[in-house]
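Hi! If you just cloned this repository, the fastest way to understand the data is to look at a raw example. We've pasted two of them here, unedited. The first protein comes first, obviously.
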Amino acid sequence: MDKCWCLAPLCFFSVAKVAFALEPVSFTQGPVQVIPQVSLQAGYDDNIYSTASGEVESWKSIISPALQLKMVQGKSEYTLNYQLHQGIYQESSDDNYTDHQLDGRVFLDLNSRNRLELVAGYLAGHEGRGTGLNQGTAALTNNKPVEYHVNSLFSAYEYGGQEAKGRIRLAATYQDREYDNYRSQTQVKDRENVKMIGTFFYRVLPKTSLLFELSNEDIDYRLSSVNLDSTERKYLLGATWDATAKTSGTVKLGYSDKDFDSSAREDGDGSSWEVAMRWAPRSYSVFDISTNRGTRETDGTGDYIDSTDFNLQWTHAWSGVWRSRVYLNLSNDDYAKSAREDDGRTVGLGLDFFTTRWLNLALDYRYSERDSNQSDLNFERNAIYLTIQMSL
């Protein structure tokens, strides 16, 4: 397994013989590599608003060009990434959207014991009708998707050699989320999140470390009349390993609590976990398993959402050009201080065809459903889509 050295909280594993991907050729401008890519997706969705009845179906296409600028100096790296997502609905042009994502990353390998990562990002996104504030029978309350933007900062410092007995990582994240339209509804969701994370790793085997992690997140809503300001804390113990070519993963188990500033809100506490594991019984066949439990901010129902997710994917390379993917997602959302509880299920099948170094094709079918104790929030949804990825 290839190791993942990034300090950011999202870090993906790769297995060289299974994880087929584009191999784009860059062109250079001085010391800078320029890497353009584009993805084209077209498909059919039989319930674009995720409603229990009166389903609306539509053909949909998404155009996603991307550009990366990259400069490497020794073991340090500087990148600038931009991606656009243009969604077009054939049967409902009111749901068309244009999302933008821009981020810059600096990774400094200062010496054998010190590493520093800095990331700044901007996202202009949307919440499709049938999600967020407008679910179920309220899906068509607005005549267009809700739009928002997020400014974010991330920093992480790690002290200790990769082979040292002990390592310490300190990280901080900042997010400023603001909604852009339907302000009479959405201004109640404007908020800032500031999170601090400290992790200590203790190596017990050459490729296995125990860990202890503490985190503290302050969530502040901009509107003074919204009494959802809170502090979330997590205390996690676990391990991370890359023991053999067949297994790797990270397991964190512990306790979390959420304390509201307002006594009118219901504080919460309980078990918390973050698990991500990979098992590769063969070099061409991989199982990815992840599960987590934590809290999410409410979209208008209850004080917060106690959320549990489980994900399983089996990826199998049948030849040098064909690969299949089978995936399953299960979720449970319990709305604190509300009777609402949702169970979600998504199953899917994908086929990938890797024609050349610069062109990949994928065909996916996905079925998703929500089973809620509020019947107007139930839905079933089928989607099938073809994706074309291209690079230089």
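Ok, and the second one:
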Amino acid sequence: GETVQVDLSKRADGVNKVLLHDAVVMYQANLRVGTAKTKSRAEVSGCGKKMYKQKGTGNARMGNKRTPVRRGGGHCFAKRPKDWGYRLPAKALRLATRMAILSKFEDNEVTVVDAIKIESPKTSVIHRMVKTLGFVDRSCMIAIDRHDPVVWKSCRNIPRLSVSPCDDLNAHTVLARKQFVITKAALDRLLAR
């Protein structure tokens, strides 16, 4: 195939690894569901009656049977559902996306294809394309011009292969896959933004 010359100097001055790391950590934190929950001593079933009188039995003093030190008691510091999500500034995230794409070009991990045209959903067509490009053993992200249900349905059953409209790319999705395949229309759209 032919070589495509792309000037990305206006898009990002260089690759800032700290910013890329911060962006990826943010996206991963936002994926956390945070639904872990355990019961405290107030929530476990059982009455709160004092087990036996304070003095005279010879045993250690004991109150509620659901105290954390007893079997069947509640947790001392019970887990609560938590929202781990947060947002970095939008300008920083946009810059991180451009840097992630630039890093792919710098590492020679980008392949530009003319177009991906499929009449009906067919996984074998995409698999043949990936095999021809030599990326069967590598994870791959395919960036297309705009959302195409046929291409998406053709890609969804192939492990370690993702497809995304170029407008939906972010630093995490770009860096999560080893090889970056982009159509010419998608590349022109990225450069025009």
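That's it. A detail worth noticing about the second one: The chain has six helices and four strands.
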